Amino acid sequence: MNAQDFDRWVQASLNAFEAALDDLVPAGAPAGLGEAMRYAVLGGGKRLRPLLVLASCAAVGGDSFAAMRAACSVELIHAYSLVHDDMPCMDDDVMRRGKPTTHVAFGEAQAMLAGDAMQALAFEVLTPDTGIAPALQARLCSLLARSAGHDGMAGGQAIDLASIGKQLDEVTLRDMHRRKTGVLLQASVMMGAACGPASTQATQALADYGAALGLAFQVVDDILDVTQDSTVLGKTAGKDQDANKPTYVSVLGLEAARALAQQLRAEAKAALAATGLADVSHLSLLADSVVERDN
Amino acid sequence: MNAQDFDRWVQASLNAFEAALDDLVPAGAPAGLGEAMRYAVLGGGKRLRPLLVLASCAAVGGDSFAAMRAACSVELIHAYSLVHDDMPCMDDDVMRRGKPTTHVAFGEAQAMLAGDAMQALAFEVLTPDTGIAPALQARLCSLLARSAGHDGMAGGQAIDLASIGKQLDEVTLRDMHRRKTGVLLQASVMMGAACGPASTQATQALADYGAALGLAFQVVDDILDVTQDSTVLGKTAGKDQDANKPTYVSVLGLEAARALAQQLRAEAKAALAATGLADVSHLSLLADSVVERDN
């Protein structure tokens, strides 16, 4: 697959994804709640997690309706976590994806509720009355719940919160980021794979791919935080440094962090080769785009 | 069933429930998160929702392992909503179940994360690797997600938020409370019923029972808010009045609110009679305890 074919696939996938998400996030939820939810999740973001779900499903020849629902659910979890993260009691950030954060636009109470409702909606979209086999619904809910909760994203946030102003070694930093970002990225890959008949070997190798890619994503995030300005990032640059948060750059230095990102990309591609699947080109090119991105 | 038998059933159910919940809420979650989650959900509260799940499951002769998981999941949702509700940007309350609220004890950021992680955990406990048939897992997740989200609890909170200082008519007040409290109480009944082989007739009648009981619960809450002091309630009394929130008492007056509670109890019992189930005594006595409670 060449770069042009990949770009075409990304564009077509994103179009279908945005339409599906727009359809699923209720405009009519009461008292401004729907408006806040839609503001927080529609029309912005790189949509890396949904692309991982769809690419992984395609690699195993899976059910595309279920995968699209799964793509929407992981993005809802990701978007809700950003809404809560940005609030004054957490990172206190006012800018996200180039526009005011949800609590700035709608107030703190509505932002907290919107985040809460988005998490519930993530599980609602995985459990429609028809269209997804019940056993697959259960599997997708299981993967999502475990990646979002205490042992995944929320647990990583708690470590993050406790680490401000502290020195962390690379092992602790890696554990924090594995939970905070990596586990949901990996779950995206696993949820896509669950939509099709993947062998045990392929499933394990895809888990390895997801783990390497998840960590690479965070390493690159830390690099961009110090090398890019806010306009390019669409969020406040230099934030982690200012908050005295440990990052891969602060722990390893910029050059070693760049080398680590390259090493993780190689690990991700080696894992793809070990899947035994015929066409993993989308997943491979997504790993490239994670490491080579500039925002 | 006499009152003594019912009390014995309640006590045995609560003992088993507390042990199950204690087992499921992780002490080991990182950086104090597990401690905050356990503080928020263990060792307190009336546990009405879990009792409804267990009583409903018993009425249909359902799977008690699945029902216990469902009981834990609804209580996790209820408890997380209290944690977020009590925060300064919402109701700003400092006392709950006779002790400091979670954000007072652990800080706002940790309280928000604990609530978020508790919602994820609710879906995690419904989707174990073994012990609950996948189709039942999917059904339970579906019921829980819909009752917790924009069309249920979170939507009701948003209406509540927007209603402060406003006059509401009884229809709007009823819609707010149906979403905010009623839908999760009703879902507790439905999740219990889903654990067994309930007929369409029984399922519909149990839904009616849950709707009447859910509304009765809120009417009684509003009555107690003005007739009891904080020590008996274990939370700040007179709060709604002080916040200028519309309640059943402010809209209907105290006597009419009391009459409505009695009417809803009668509706709940009529619905139970329409289930066609052999033994609905636990559900019937739970309706009594909701209307007759003093805290």
TrEMBL record, chains A, B:
Its EC number is 2.5.1.1, 2.5.1.10. InterPro entries: Isoprenoid_synthase_dom_sf, Polyprenyl_synt, Polyprenyl_synt_CS, Prenyl_diphosphate_synthase. The keyword Magnesium applies. Keywords: Isoprene biosynthesis, Magnesium, Metal-binding, Transferase. One of its GO terms (molecular function) is (2E,6E)-farnesyl diphosphate synthase activity. The keyword Ribonucleoprotein does not apply. Gene3D superfamilies: Farnesyl Diphosphate Synthase. It is an enzyme of class 2 (transferase). Belongs to the FPP/GGPP synthase family. CDD domains: Trans_IPPS_HT (cd00685). Its cofactor is Mg(2+). This is Farnesyl diphosphate synthase.
